[in-house]
Automatic annotation (TrEMBL):
Keywords: DNA-binding, Transcription, Transcription regulation
Ranges where the HTH gntR-type domain occurs: 10-78
Keyword Transcription regulation found: yes
SMART domains assigned to the protein according to its UniProt record, in alphabetical order: HTH_GNTR
Short name of one Pfam family: GntR
InterPro entries, per the entry: Bact_HTH_transcr_reg (IPR050679), Chorismate_lyase_/UTRA_dom_sf (IPR028978), Tscrpt_reg_HTH_GntR (IPR000524), UTRA (IPR011663), WH-like_DNA-bd_sf (IPR036388), WH_DNA-bd_sf (IPR036390)
Protein name per UniProt: GntR family transcriptional regulator
Classification via Gene3D superfamilies: Chorismate lyase-like, Winged helix-like DNA-binding domain superfamily/Winged helix DNA-binding domain
Amino acid sequence: MNQTQRIKRVNKTTAVQKALENLREYIKDTVSEVLPNEDELSRYLGVSRLTVREATTVLEREGVVSRVQGKGTLINSFVTKLENRIDCGSDIEGCLRQNGYDVRFEVDELEFRKATKVEESKLGLNPEDSILVVKKILYANEMAAAVYIDRVPEKLLKTKKFTAEDLRPCIFPTIESLCQKSITHDVVQLYPHGADEDLARIFNIEINTPILRFDVLEYTSDSITLMYNTEFYTDKFIKFTLCRNVAYKE
C-alpha cells in the first residue's frame, strides 16, 4: 500500500490542529524520509495548501521536519524517536509514572513574603509588593526527584481561600483559578547549579554537586507575568536531551 494512503482526511473546523495530529501519526508510522509535497498533502488531508503550510511550519519549529531546497520537506527521524519533549509540555510526573515509579508531591513551604530584588525584576513588581511562595518536592519511590519553587504576585490573587492540599498536585490550574487568568505560554532558561545545603539535604547529595536548574516565567495571553518558577533536577531520575536547529554561514 502506498505510504501516503495512510494519511487521514480531517475536519475543516479544526483544520490546522487536526492536520498536525494526522501528520504526526503519519510521520511516526511511515518509512519514508520525505513528506509529500504541499499539493499532495492538501489532497490527502482534504484541506487547503495554506493549512498544510501552517501545519508543516509548526513541525519545522519543533524540529520534526526540515525544509531543504531541491529536496523537499525531510523527516528528521531521530527527533520522532524522542518519547518525551519538554518543549511540547511534557509532564515530568507522568514520565516517572510511565517508567514504573510511585510518584507523590509534598508541599515543603507555603508563605507570603516580600519579593527579593530578583523576584521583583522577574515578576515586574514594585519594592513593596509581596508574593505567594510555594515550595514542593516531587518524590519517586520516596526519593526526591525534583524541587519546585513557585512564586505568584499577591496582588494578582483574587482570593486567598486555599490550603496546602490545593497546591499539592499540578499547581497551575489552582493558580489560574485563584487569579482568574489563564497561562498560555512560558519562557524557560536552563542553568547549571551547585546544590546548596538545603538542596543537598533534600536530594541526599553532597553540597555543590552539579544539578540542573530551570527558571520559568509563566505568561497570560495579555502578557502578564503570572508566575516565576524555579525547578531543580538531579540526573538520578531525570535527564534532558536537547535537539537544536543549527545553521552555519560560510
